[in-house]
Amino acid sequence: MNGRLLKTGRLLRPLFAIVCGLGIAALVMQLSGYNVREAYSALFTGATGIEPGAARGASQIALGTLPVFSRPYHLNTFLLAQSLAKSTPLLFCGLAIALGLRAGLFNIGAQGQMTVGALAAAFVGQWGIGKGDSGTFPPLLHITLVLMAGAAAGALWGALPGLLKAYRGVHEVIATIMLNYVAINATTYFVTHTLKDPNSAAAQSARIAKSAWLAPFVAGSNLTAGFLLALLAAAALAFLIGRTSLGFRIRAVGMGADAAAAAGISVPRTLIVTMALSGALAGLAGGVEVVGVQHRFIQGIASNYGYDGIAVALLGGLGGGGVGLSALFFGALSSGAAHMQTLTDVPDSIAVIVQAIVIIFVGVRYIRRNKRNRGTFNLDEMQPSGSGIGSGKAV
Amino acid sequence: MPQTSLDSPANLIVRMDNITREYPGVIANRNVHLHVRAGAFHAVIGENGAGKSTLLNILYGRSKPDAGRIFIANAHGVEEEVTNTLNSPAEAIRRGIGLVSQHYTLIPALTVLENVMLGAEMPILGGFLHPRRAAERTRELAAQLGIESLDLNAHAGQLSVAAQQKVEILKALYRGARILLLDEPTATLAPPEAHALFELLHTLAAGGTTVVFVTHKLRDVMAHSDAVTILRAGQNAGDFRTADTDSQELLHCMIGGGSRTATLLNTDFESASDDLPPKTARSLNDTGIAISNPAATAAAPVVEAIIPSPLLQVEDAVIRGDRRVIAISEARLTVGRGEIVGVAGVDGSGQRELSEAIIGLRRFERGRLFLEGSEITSRTVRQRQEAGIAYLPEDRHRAGMILDFSIAENYLLGHEDRREWGGGITLDHARMWNRATEMLRRYDVRSGTNGATALAGTLSGGNQQKVVFARAMEANPRLLVACQPTRGLDVAASRFVYDTLRRARADGLGVLLFSLDLDEILELSDRIAVLYAGRVAGVLNRHDATRETVGALMTGSSGSGKHISLGAQV
Known about the structure:
The structure holds two protein chains of two kinds. Chain A is mainly alpha-helical. Chain A contains 13 helices and three strands, in the order H-H-E-E-E-H-H-H-H-H-H-H-H-H-H-H. By secondary structure, chain B is α/β, with parallel strands linked by helices. The longest helix of chain B is centred in the middle third of the chain and has 16 residues. Classes of the chains: A mainly alpha, B alpha/beta. Chains A and B meet through helix 8 and helix 9 of A and helix 13, helix 14, helix 15 and helix 16 of B.
């Protein structure tokens, strides 16, 4: 059990899953009669912003002639920014799900927690609104308040199934799925009635004050400081899991609830706190989407991020760093697929195929582990083996 | 008289010979035989982990033996070898074997009738069910059993545990069971219900059905069975006709020490061990802790240990078990400083529940708990730890440690809020690792080249137990609650456990030792409390305790035990 080998293995396995996913998707495209080379080159450009040709305009940075390809390339900062922007909610939701799984909880409710977080953020975002959406609050304060509202709403929405699990034994998968429907329908009610935008027929809230807007890093893109906040959250999660007694308790409950209880750790309290923190992370995803992208609550604001976050968390191996890389990959894949669809006639559903195959390959690992342990696949057992990020090895 | 074979093969309905079943690291059955006469009421008894359930599962086709042969007599009494064909419960049912397991398998939302039919539907053409005929047949069977009052249309979930069990029996008979296996059938029943169950089983046996039941309740065995097979540590420990034996003899076979004659000859058990505690009274003097104990000098059987300020007091505890049944009633127990109090009893008599309630994992339904005079009945596990109670759980792998945690992390478990352990709001990894490394050295834990970063699951059982002990002892507790501390350990590791417990006593700690191993209790304890059916049946000074006196109390078959026990403030 060499430490370095273990580390490489943890990186190699997800990479293998990704390569398999891309390979099988290529096969599907080939069999369907598409030009795989063309499609993947467009996907790559959309994902990374690297495209052939000389740099033109301020948003393109020349990369010079790359040695292998012997032609000039440039970096399209807009495309890269869109990729990173797409990763932002995925990262928050991935972290939310990873944290839950650390305590042995499968939080399927990130979708609903993100939705209620977004609504709370949109509500607080309208505080102090004036003419032409100008705001009277200092921007930093207002943005902080809005994000805190999003996190708090998500935390409450997450704590609810935590309470049910801790004191009534209700399985969190059932409770969170149910609460997703409640969240989606309740928020829709609010933005078609009390909080409805009076100037639009759509199911959306009015715009938030400009004092609560985050400015994009690249003009026209959705990349804002929200992305940095997500990276910060990933670092915070890694710290929480590996370096704090709360994280220690969470892992203890996840890996051996009976031993944790016998050692005096309150299992119910740990479950509730974990679900609340998990919900807060998903709620932040909603808050960032409001302040950085939509500037209001729109119906379906959570898109599919809450569910995609499951794939992000599993591919990322439930650690802060791994989930970060995994979110970047899935964000780039989704952004690249959109670009591919506009440049070629290949549908962006190819990205879904890649994602599905990656999940299958990563999932096999969990099934195999559980087969060894119990003989059945049990969602409750979906926990990483070995000690966590920075836990055993860092000492 | 122990007999290896009671009957000639001619009238046996079940003949299992030389059954061996190995699980990774554990031999559950080694060369076990089970011979059941047709129409018998046959008991299989043994302690937890003796291999009873494994044997039953093999007979029911749920698991395959690694070696051995199985013969079942068919409906015409002709013995057929089924060693190679008996590989599923479906096949067992086809051969006329039915199992009522400890955990009932009824579907709560379905009616009794639907549950009985489930999997054995009588389809008419094209797979349509024939509920009317099924109902008739079920009613007939219920009438034969004398339970025609059972409502076939009630939902199974609404039935009491006892009624559900009857439905399970109906289910087995509906499938044509000639041999009915029951795993701990009375474990969750109240005495009148158990009585009714046995009445029903006797009706069945009178009608020609062979009944095989697994239990550890000797009273049931003596009252109801006509033959007994005893297992101990995965091996046969005796076969008896119930009429030719008594519960004392059965108990000796069950918990070791051989037959009664062997036991009587070998009155001094401790001479078998090379490192013995001195006799109780002397050991107390050696520790320099003044405990006046008149009962130790007087020959009176009633123990009136006068402890000036007891460390732990359990007062009139009533504790419920997992299925909400009362597991402990009106228990009184006292532990003084510098003494080991052993809690003996056959499996299931309430030790687990009592130990869990003392450390805080289980609620006191009634009664109170004091540590050094202050009441801690409603404190949490953590608060009790901080007050000085340390816990050595029965199941190391499940409750003792987290196998996927490193040794250092396991060592921190329970102390994760303590700065000096490397805990606190943020963990101090360097300190945590240093402490764990120091502990490995002092307790001589062999963890390989990875030291404290090795995963706990990679340690041997003995080394795991050392880590669990070290974690408890280094918290400087005043009371140790040790449950089955040597289960599954080899001799060297057991010696470590004994030494540690004795050192704790010498240091003035109180030790509450829960053990199913009577030899262990007799070897370590200064006083012995015996639980029987959830009650403290008696408390004896080690001085006065013999295998016989303790054994009699353990089985509830002691007349003299009563005046020792009742009301004795220990």
